[in-house]
Amino acid sequence: MTNTPETLNILNPDFRMPEHCGGDRWSILHGDSLQIIRQFEPNSFDAIITDPPYASGGSSQTTKNRSTSEKYSSMSKDKALPDFDSDQMDQLSWMFWTAAWLQDARRIAKPGAPVCLFIDWRQLPAMTLALQWAGWTWRGVAVWDKVASRPQKGRFRQQSEYIVWGSNGKMPLERNVGCLPGVFRYPNPQNRIHVTEKPLPLMRDVVQICEPGGRILDPFAGAGTTVLAAVQEGYEAVGIEMSDAYFQRSTERLKTALESEVNQNGFTFDRQLENSESNLIHSRK
């Protein structure tokens, strides 16, 4: 891992490091989140922000069992993006699976740390239950308005997804975070590299729920959007990605995007950098 000693410092020293890639203030680990999350030291993260598999895309198990490219994309087979795992479970199985990794994630989150979880309308109730079963304090639901969506005669458009959010216990109002909106209006990104990729401007807004200079974990990195957004906003970020294809795609995207910005600006991002370094030193004490 290049220039990412902080990630090594927060992992169990007996853990055998999986394939990984990183740079200044970011890293992505290649493997199963349920296994890797358990290897981080307690109180390692200031926020958990992720877009997990929804196990949705249909009203019956038959439609849910389709591949993710079939469920979430209209691209032809020759242009389809790679599929991803953990998206074919029935609702009860998915809810227990979600509660399991959320419980492990709470152990490695600092007291008061926020958690933000993307989800659709079908799984929204189940996500709120899983969050609470895992011991988090549920604090509300924000809305991602996708602006445009397929019209349905005689029905409302399904043009929104949701961000179920909460905290690891009490969340002091004195945190160094301003007032954030409850509705985010951004269209789906063009030229996606992931089937369910979120817009980068959306994620740059969402990560700001974390205190300045904090460390953010995304257990389902996908296209690497959360990690990229976090670094661009001055945070440190760690992602985990199980898929071979998306591990490669996300790390290449991060390297290309961040190197390009460094070359254009002549320096690595310094937004909130002093706070980031101060936070890192404090976290090691």
In short:
With 285 residues, the chain is of the alpha/beta class. The protein has ten helices and nine strands.
Q: State the share of residues found in helices, binned by percent.
A: 25-40%
Poorly predicted runs: 267-285
Provide the gyration radius in Å.
18 Å
Q: Separation of termini?
A: 23 Å
Structural class: alpha/beta
Counting DSSP H or I runs of 4 or more residues, the number of helices is: 10
Tell me the total number of β-strands.
9
What general form does the structure show?
globular
Q: Sheet with the most strands?
A: 9 strands, mixed
Q: For the residues shown, what is the average pLDDT?
A: 85
Strand order of the largest sheet: 1-2-9-8-3-4-6-5-7
H and E order: HEEHEHHHEHEEEHEHEHH
Beta content: 15-25%
Structural topology:
Elements: H1 5-9, E1 20-23, E2 26-30, H2 33-36, E3 47-50, H3 61-64, H4 68-72, H5 91-108, E4 114-119, H6 124-133, E5 137-145, E6 160-167, E7 183-185, H7 200-206, E8 215-218, H8 225-232, E9 236-241, H9 244-265, H10 273-284
Parallel strand pairs: 2-9, 3-4, 3-8, 5-7, 8-9
Antiparallel strand pairs: 1-2, 4-6, 5-6
Helix pairs in contact: 5-6, 7-8, 8-9
